[in-house]
Amino acid sequence: TQLLEQSPQFLSIQEGENLTVYCNSSSVFSSLQWYRQEPGEGPVLLVTVVTGGEVKKLKRLTFQFGDARKDSSLHITAAQPGDTGLYLCAGANNAGNMLTFGGGTRLMVKP
Amino acid sequence: NAGVTQTPKFRILKIGQSMTLQCTQDMNHNYMYWYRQDPGMGLKLIYYSVGAGITDKGEVPNGYNVSRSTTEDFPLRLELAAPSQTSVYFCATITGHSSPLHFGNGTRLTVT
Questions:
Q1: Which pLDDT score is estimated for A110?
Q2: Which residues pair with B33 in a beta bridge?
Q3: Best residue in A98, A105, A106, A107 to probe B by mutation, most B CBs within 10 Å?
Q4: What pLDDT does A97 receive?
Q5: Testing the interface with B: which of A1, A33, A99 to mutate, by most B Cβ within 10 A?
Q6: B48 Cβ partners below 8 Å, 6+ apart?
Q7: pLDDT digits (tens, 9 = 90+) for A74-87
Q8: Residues 6+ apart with CB under 8 A from A80
């Protein structure tokens, strides 16, 4: 069983601050996806990283896949209240048809 | 094009009762999944299916059953509801390998 450890579990920050969420495993994943979930809804994909060392940017969000494809990070610059939500990382198996989710990071950005 | 539709949205069950959570997709995807999400936590895979007639256990299958008689439908059955099954249940599909999951809006189940 592939396990993903996500940290921190909870994060409460002021608007304008920067933050980083980590997703770590001892297993290698073929790709890693980051999702954001609003209350009462299903998770929605933010990004997929595939190549070891890959960095992707989505406006103020920067995603990195570790060189060994075992870990990933999400960095948010100048957080805004609209960034509030549950952030989930999910690693794909070699076949790419099974995702293992981390425990999630609940982010609250206060105005 | 509704995507992934789950019914009901909410349900309260008494211990020992049974129910079926419905999931229908109109995207003609082969892969379908059932996850459960406990409050503030990540998702755990219950069962999945790679196509009509084929189902497999995920990480936490005990207490659940599934069937996949058509491409569109993937119902999840609870035979003897237990308080430990109180959770939010999400059905999801993918288009193919390494594709993102498309989720339904979930069914919130409480067992008392």
A1: 97
A2: B48, B92
A3: A98
A4: 81
A5: A99
A6: A98, B31, B32, B33, B34, B55, B56, B58
A7: 999 999 999 999 99
A8: A15, A60, A109
Within 13 A of B109's CA, how many CA atoms are on the CB side?
32
Strands of the sheet with A19-24, listed across from one edge: A5-7, A19-24, A71-76, A61-65, A55-58
- Annotate A9-28 with DSSP letters as a single string: SEEEEETT--EEEEEE-SS-
Asked whether the predicted pLDDT for residue A1 surpasses 70, the reply is no
Judge contact between A26 and A17, C-beta under 8 A: no
What pLDDT is stored for residue A69 in this prediction? 94
The pLDDT of residue B95 is 81
The verdict on a CB contact (< 8 Å) between A97 and B50 is yes
What single-letter amino acid sits at A111? Answer: P
Low-confidence ranges of chain B (pLDDT < 50): none
Q: What is the pLDDT of residue A6?
A: 95
How does the average pLDDT of chain A come out, rounded? 94
